[in-house]
Protein: Glycoside hydrolase family 127 protein
Organism: Blautia difficilis
Amino acid sequence: MNKNRLLQKEECVIRNSFWNRYIDLVKNMVIPYQWDILNDRRKDAEPSHAIDNLRIAGGKMKGHFYGQVFQDSDVYKWLEAVGNILMLERNPELEEKADSVIDLIAEAQEEDGYLDTYFSIEEPDKKWTNVLECHELYCAGHFIESAVSYYRATGKEKILQIAYKLADYLDRVFGPEEGKLHGYPGHQEIEIALLKLYDLSGNEKYLNLAGYFINTRGTNHFFEEEFEKRDHVSFWEKARTPEPNRYYNQYPYNYYNQFQSPVRLQKKAVGHAVRAVYMYTAMADLAGKTGDKELFAACRTIWDNIVKKQMYITGGIGATNSGEAFTNDYDLPNDTNYSETCASIGLIFFAQKMLMSETDSVYGDVMEQALYNTVLGGMNYEGNRFFYVNPLESVPEVCRDNTQRHHVKPERQKWFACACCPPNIARLIGGLWDYIYTASEDRVNVHLYIAGDGKIQVGESILNITQSTSYPENGKINFTVQSDSDREIGLAFRIPGWAEHYTLRLDGKEITPDQVENGYALISRCWTKSAHIELEFDMQPRFICANRRIHYDLGRAAIMRGPLVYCLEEADNGKYLAELTVDTDAGLTEEKKPELGGYVALKARGSRTQVPDTDKLYTTYCASRESTELVAVPYYLWNNRGTGEMQVWIKTGL
Amino acid sequence: MNKNRLLQKEECVIRNSFWNRYIDLVKNMVIPYQWDILNDRRKDAEPSHAIDNLRIAGGKMKGHFYGQVFQDSDVYKWLEAVGNILMLERNPELEEKADSVIDLIAEAQEEDGYLDTYFSIEEPDKKWTNVLECHELYCAGHFIESAVSYYRATGKEKILQIAYKLADYLDRVFGPEEGKLHGYPGHQEIEIALLKLYDLSGNEKYLNLAGYFINTRGTNHFFEEEFEKRDHVSFWEKARTPEPNRYYNQYPYNYYNQFQSPVRLQKKAVGHAVRAVYMYTAMADLAGKTGDKELFAACRTIWDNIVKKQMYITGGIGATNSGEAFTNDYDLPNDTNYSETCASIGLIFFAQKMLMSETDSVYGDVMEQALYNTVLGGMNYEGNRFFYVNPLESVPEVCRDNTQRHHVKPERQKWFACACCPPNIARLIGGLWDYIYTASEDRVNVHLYIAGDGKIQVGESILNITQSTSYPENGKINFTVQSDSDREIGLAFRIPGWAEHYTLRLDGKEITPDQVENGYALISRCWTKSAHIELEFDMQPRFICANRRIHYDLGRAAIMRGPLVYCLEEADNGKYLAELTVDTDAGLTEEKKPELGGYVALKARGSRTQVPDTDKLYTTYCASRESTELVAVPYYLWNNRGTGEMQVWIKTGL
């Protein structure tokens, strides 16, 4: 059913100051910083012990495991980010570090292929007794992903051999056959990894095992049975518990873990948001690879549920910190939400896999929305501070004082005890070239507008395509296109959902696309002679309203320009942002700012209603209302100019 | 230091259709309903087993304890409400039930005086091993309070003898002497009770034991030591825990339980709100009785912190469900708050005890504010549904969908597994006569405007005082005053903080008070000849603004009329209340409504900003703005006309 394929690394290079700066941050800041963390060289951060865990498991060091039960995955996420960066440019010094870690992993891997330092060190007789909570498959998945990435970047076989040995071992442990475990992961991730390993190797064993995990989920009572077998002991509580899940999760655990029904019968995004989108990503990938239309239809239903009912305007998902989870349709509070950075990254993964089966601009739109807002907003401009939770409204005192808002940090943090977001940002940004285009036998689809060079295999032909643009600062994108054959090749450009107008010029002349379908404008030509295409989107900033069913946003407006969501910050507008209303009739004006890499600030008319300063809690109403100018900045840049209030949804008024 | 005394029951009778209806509800609905609950006769409610627990402990029945560890207190709270109601009018049928329960309690009491069915039945060897969590002193306190009330109503000695035996036993268990426990309760309550027992008996042993509990709190490491002794086992978790308190409480447990410092050094209300105000009540009472100025000053500091920084406009306290607790100054969210009914009742207790030492209108103001808004709002008009949590904003879908709002119920509930609020409302309303006046040697202070007859001892004289009023429906209160002596007696009327104007007439002539001090207008006269006083407050409805530091209320206004806070309800204003803004310049008009006992509705001008109905989550801003009339109703009546949205703080706009 796959009609589109993702590119090979050779086919696309990003050349874009905006994105290259981020890629450099990942290379020069995030990866080295994380390397120090993994090796416990940062006195100002939580100890990691992750590399030492490998040493201990491999017999190179004495001691105990330390950290989260899924601590290993921090190493693997780092390795995957390294692999992605090395695909852009080899780096002997970095490879030396990575190779040294790979040696440790090889030694930590057991004879039969098992790899998980917690159980190898601490509880070797308890392997696979708590698949629900103990993340063995999650860690295995991250390792396999890192192996695929590192191998693709370097061609070095060693890590791949560890991955094959591990995957083969997993295939002996899990499966439909008698004597194997008829289970599936508590935290989905292995499915994505096995499908990548299948892509690399062509070995159907991995495809089938991924399929087994996906298709068996929710069809049996595996988690109940293993809970009985381990006498109701919870890993997290280290004690018997009435139910087999963590106490903080207010949902039934079969929803929290997405096995409330067989996956192909699921209609709605539920439970832990990262687990959910990792699973949907694998489902979409599997559906495409196997031509499973029913499974793909389930993916589309869930996709629609997310983007039409459960997604923030920033591309954030997961409305509650309780279980880091989805809640219900249209429940999107702005100041108590979760919107984990990793969940938005997973949503981008999901979109990418959907694009392989269906060329529909809704996927690219959401990729762009999540990428330019929540994902970029997850990291500061310097690349050394991170948000785990991405609120749409933040008042520092309120975050500090109110327990329901304690999870919302008013400023980016150095690192986290559960350090999933920074390396996830790193691997996404490092691998961003893979999200720009897809190709089929006779067509190239352009999903993201990111400057760079493409050399894309289209059937038997090669299409050379150069994008140059300073999008999203402006909406003009220039393409130079040339093919090595005289075959007609289609070039389809995503027309973003937000773009009310666009123009398309071919060699200077405005043209109408041959076809506009599912949000893509298609031009089919023979590109033997180099052609110049100019695509221009109307970047007029605009006010946005939310669906009436989102109670939290009633009587409010947000501001967008292109794919960028804007926000008010205390730095520009003073304290007490909730006193401000915006006049949506008075329009928005642009002002180019040089700071923070350059951005377009937007100015609006509005007013501030201010009550007198008093010692009393409540007094007879008395307020001044003054006309004022509001200054909005791109959401992804918030909290780069000191800690202060921030607000996306602004009260409307005159 | 006490300058004022509370009245004896004989001194005051309420005669007021508004309040007599509530008193009748307590008598005819709440007490019989709870009796059925306690006896497990309601199929539609959680089983209580509380009476059976007494039977089992007394050897009248075989079986196990069932319910919360503090289940006994449900029986005692019922008994106290019964006592209060019997003070108003004896009732042989009700007394028969109460006497039968008292017989069971006598049998459940152990030889040495110990009384707590959980430990007597289930863990007799664990008595007093977990004073922090196990509520033995809490239950004892509620029993003693019920005994005082029932004895005062009936003169029957049996219950009082049980109480003395229990209190004498407690005095042998706790105290400064070697061999006694140097502890104090986890959940404060016994202190209030012992002071009441001292009032009744004059026995200083009880005064001293209350003083011991209060003054020892926070001065030693009792809770840590008992935690060590019981090997870190938590009662709630039934397992070893890292810290000696319940998991849901996000505060250090010494704050949660108010022993972060000696009580007289405490400056701020912290932790579990009900425990806090019960403790402050006892502190204020003790300070007054013992003339302890330092302790009283601490009470005043804490009082000011609550009412100037941590109280909702409705008199609700406790901003978070996490630990049912105070959070921090000015942290008063409207839709995720707790504001437990019982906490406001405790705040009224606290105010009453403060009034004994200091005649300041702030206490009566807050009593009135809490009583007419949160306490009355805690019960429906029919008297058979109750709020535990009292939000200032409620959207049923949001309460259902969002985990941070699950504790906020959009409609009153039948009863609760932890059934503290309904009987607490019952005992307060049954004992309301005790809050209207205080008296000193030469003066009577009028704190609440509730119609009825007073026959008040003032020094050697009796002052007969009749109040007639339909306050708070209107602001006119008529008093007829006559004394049996020719001594000059002061009559001081609280001038509510909200009353911008008032007039005072003596025998038809407007007069100026002899003195206005601390919010009380004083007239000193010789009242031998019957005099007629007319007091009238300006009941003009008014908009209110909140202190600028309360971020949640910025750009919003509330509506009050007299002491009543108003709210918008879906029943009058349609769905999507957050679309409404109110025009504070356009004034408020009154409309008398006959329903729900008759109330004054208030109408305001405003507008509704409505976005188009669409399937999309976010669209280019487009909204209609229509002028509209807003209808506000008294907050205490909300949710009596179906389940729907409610909002106290309304956006301001034109």
